[in-house]
Amino acid sequence: MRPGSESDGLRIVDLAKRYGAVVAVDGLDLSVPRGGLIGFLGPNGAGKTTTMRAVLGMVRPDRGSITWQGRPIDDDARRRTGYMPQERGLYARMKVREQVAYFGQLAGMRRRVAEARADAWIERLDLTERAGSMVQELSGGNQQRVQLAVSLVHDPELLVLDEPFAGLDPVAAETMRRIIAERAAAGVSVLFSSHQLDVVEDLCDEVVIIADGQLVASGLITDLRSASATRWLRVRWTQPVERWTPLEGVIESFDGRTAVVRLDRDADVAASIADALSAGPVSEVALEPPRLDEIFTELVGSGHLRSKRTEAGS
Ligand code: ATP
Q1: Does 102 map to a domain?
Q2: Of the residues 125, 216, 260, 287, which has the maximum number of CB atoms within 10 A of its CB?
Q3: Domain that holds residue 34
Q4: Are 237 and 163 part of one and the same domain?
Q5: CA distance 132 to 51
């Protein structure tokens, strides 16, 4: 198999899952290449957790295929997968070190090796002082660090992390960010969900955005940004300007020195800049595509989904 081929890594094709009348996942395709780091995004109830649980064999799909390295994912491949569930899946009364090593052994490691790897991750995650504490005695954020250690202890080839950043303090979030980036750089395929889109934009190049169990957009964040119909024009004048009404677009903010205007893609940018210059000498002009959070709102904001549903229903 050539590296980077379609059969390399995780591949989900036409996945569907229903819970009674609720359609949780509806014909979803998604790929995470070897060493790929994919941010999995979608509003609450979009179907992210259901998809991840299907990869782990915790949800039986109604339809579709999930393959790892070109073959249907099986228990053996799942033992080489690290999973961080959204709800913690730890034994509350087991001690931290014991627990991390225990999960390593469950994944097939010998006891000594599992203990050594547990110690390494416990140290990396700044849990050494709590290694002898029961999990239930730890704060929520520290329990999450234990959960991460559990998902990493057996050196998995595939990491599936369901909202790993939720509830972490800034220091722990930075550690999490570094570990995820490092694992992907080491060739691990990483799929992680998050509602913190600034973190996603900072951490990964590619995203998959779903809503109502269906794919809405996927690909490089830079491509999604440049494909957006919106541009932000930022203008800063050298001296305060009394008033400015842009030729085109909608003023988002204006404080006398700086203006931010939302332009449509087909707006005449040169004319808008010339117009800003006519109001006074300008020290800075920038034309920027929207950020990931703005694109997310554009694509899956409530208005968009409502119109999609109306179209579907009409
Ligand atoms: P969030 O961002 O809120 O975690 P999500 O994208 O992970 O959401 P899922 O948890 O996969 O979404 O839920 C998708 C849909 O399936 C929701 O409507 C949810 O209520 C429903 N659902 C999920 N699990 C079950 C279940 N075990 N029984 C019934 N309905 C379920």
Answers
A1: yes
A2: 125
A3: 6-220
A4: no
A5: 35
User: Could you tell which of 12, 15, 17, 22 is best to mutate to test the pocket of ligand 1, judged by most ligand atoms within 8 Å of the CB?
Assistant: 22
Q: Does residue 151 have its Cβ closer than 6 Å to ligand 1?
A: no
Residue-wise pLDDT tens digits, 286-314:
999 999 999 999 899 865 454 444 444 33
pLDDT in tens, 54-64: 999 999 999 99
Both 15 and 117 in a single domain?
Answer: yes
Task: State whether the beta carbon of 44 lies less than 6 angstroms from ligand 1.
Answer: yes
The total number of structural domains in the chain stands at 2
Residues 97 and 189 in one domain: yes
Atom of ligand 1 nearest to the CA of 49: 7
Q: Which atom of ligand 1 is nearest to the CA of 51?
A: 11
Q: Which residue in 12, 22, 20 sits closest to 63, CA to CA? A: 12
Residues 196 and 238 in one domain: no
Ligand 1 neighbourhood includes 17 CB (under 6 angstroms): no
Q: What order of strands is seen across the sheet that includes strand 158-162?
A: 81-84, 158-162, 189-193, 37-41, 206-211, 214-220
